[in-house]
Amino acid sequence: MLGRKQEINLQLTEIFDSAVLAFCLWFGHFLRAELVPVFMPDAVEIPPLEKFYWVMAIVPLFTPIALEARGFYSNIYNKNLGKSLRQMIEGLVIIGMFVGACVVFLKWEVESRAVVIFSVLMGGGALLLREEWQRRRIRRQLATGRGRERVIVAGGQADIDDFMENLTAEQRAEIHVVMPFDIIARPVSELRDALKEHAVSRVLFAVKHVHFGRIEEAVQVCETVGVEAWIAADFFQTAIARPTFDVMGGRLMLVFHSTPQASWELLFKSTLDRIGAAILLLLSLPLWLVAVIGIRVGSKGPVFFRQERAGLYGKPFTMWKFRTMHVDAETRRDELAAHNEMDGPVFKITNDPRIFGFGRWLRRMSIDELPQLINVLRGEMSLVGPRPLPVYEIERIEKHAQRRRLSVKPGLTCLWQVTGRNGIKNFEEWVRLDLQYIDNWSLWLDLKILMQTVPAVLRGSGAS
Question: Which helix (H) or strand (E) holds 205?
């Protein structure tokens, strides 16, 4: 499937899945309310369907979104049942946590667990059957060629071969390449004749090694006869950045991005950040009280420590923490420079003498980080993201590639923390983990890091 057609087919599939899930919820209630009492007369009567409307509004609507985020709708042809089940379970975990949050914080009740169990089993089975039907349809199209779009692939012969090798099974099922056209060796006039002879609907240009003037002439031929021209945007070789298209000033722009691009998933992350920060702020208020009293008793000076940190794209912001060091800590930094255990621009000492007794406990339990929830609420930080470094440390970064960690919002927790930051003394390894997070970002990855953060904090391994 290609481009806009692929997007429309995906949306139709998700709408169909939503309808199936809604039906399964209704049928699950019917089974429990009407059929179960026939065989089990002593079964407890459950409330009417109206009590389940909020579940029917949330689960069918958001489950396809969660499944898409876990890759359930991708690469259907080559997937096995085990991978589909894993992706489905991961998506259901996300929805289950969402429903659980509604139960805990909004006091909405799931009136019958049996209805949920029936619905999950039927809905999961129905989605797997729909996927299998799609897989069989792709196989039939590949075998028969029926219903496939007729296209020409044009470009240099090597580029054509490379392009054809990289087509997925789903894409091969949607198109029939009636002929390759070597645009270097053959005149463009022959392309015009081929368009008429083979009745193609589009030309796919693989043009990594073709001069732009030649491509312009061929595109004009397609324009004249009313055939779509698609140009592969891989004529610029990049190691990390991924190309997309956008529009600015009425012009089509080829965009190379090496960070998560604007999406509903990213917008959802921003919303969850603020909601999560507000909830954590309320739940942690007793710890705030303990921290305030302990700092007042254990050390002289202000309760909070504020410092300029580098935020998104290096923009400075004021980060808040509970103070864990003596008030002269910054002035003593130079005298302790010889004891720095971290290479690169970062300053870390395992048993930093500037930390007072109660402050060391606050750090071990990561309670000193709680005021950063205010930064999350203000949109300066995220719950998950690379840890923000002081501005003066960012200015000392020598390798430009390491600044890519600034291309996303800094966070309260990250891969570096949950993989045992006390054992990592190499700044390059720290940055490698941050870039690994950026290049593989998803809501599911954020969720896994948050879940791994809890035991790390409880073990007291969250900080040094």
Answer: strand 202-206
Partner residues linked to 413 by β-bridges: 384
How far is the C-alpha of 214 from the C-alpha of 206, rounded, in Å? Answer: 12
pLDDT single digits (tens) 342-390: 777 888 887 888 989 899 999 888 899 999 999 999 999 999 999 999 9
What per-residue string of b and e applies to 280-317 under the rule 16 or more CB within 10 Å gives b?
ebeeeeeebeebeebbeeebeeeeebeeebbbbeeeeb
379: left (phi over 0), alpha (psi -120 to 50) or beta: left
DSSP 35: I
Provide the 8-state DSSP code for 176: E
Residue 321 structure tokens: 């923490």
Angstrom distance (rounded) from CA 139 to CA 132:
11
Give the whole-angstrom CA distance, residue 115 versus residue 325.
Answer: 55
Q: What share of the chain is helix, strand, coil (3-state, %, to 5)?
A: 55, 15, 30
Longest dimension (CA), the chain: 88
- Report the pLDDT value the prediction gives residue 460, as an integer from 0 to 100: 64
User: How far is C-alpha 128 from the geometric centre of its chain's CA atoms?
Assistant: 23
Q: Where are the alpha helices (DSSP H) in 249-366?
A: 264-283, 285-298, 357-364
Question: Given phi > 0 = left and psi -120 to 50 = alpha, else beta, which region is 145?
Answer: left
Residue 229 in tokens: 């021209």
First to last CA, the chain: 51
Q: Residues 411, 441: contact at Cβ < 8 Å?
A: no
Can you tell me whether residue 388 is helix, strand or coil?
A: coil
Percent of the chain with pLDDT over 70: 92
CA distance 94 to 77: 25
- The residues facing 242 across adjacent strands are 257
Q: And the tokens for 253?
A: 């722009």
Identity (one letter) of the amino acid at 371? Answer: P
Specify whether the CB–CB gap between 188 and 15 falls below 8 A. no
pTM, to two decimals:
0.62
Distance CA 290, CA 194 (A): 79
Ordered domains of the chain (ranges, CATH): 3-143 (no CATH), 148-235 (3.40.50.280), 264-458 (no CATH)
Asked if 324 and 370 count as a contact pair (C-beta separation under 8 A), the reply is no
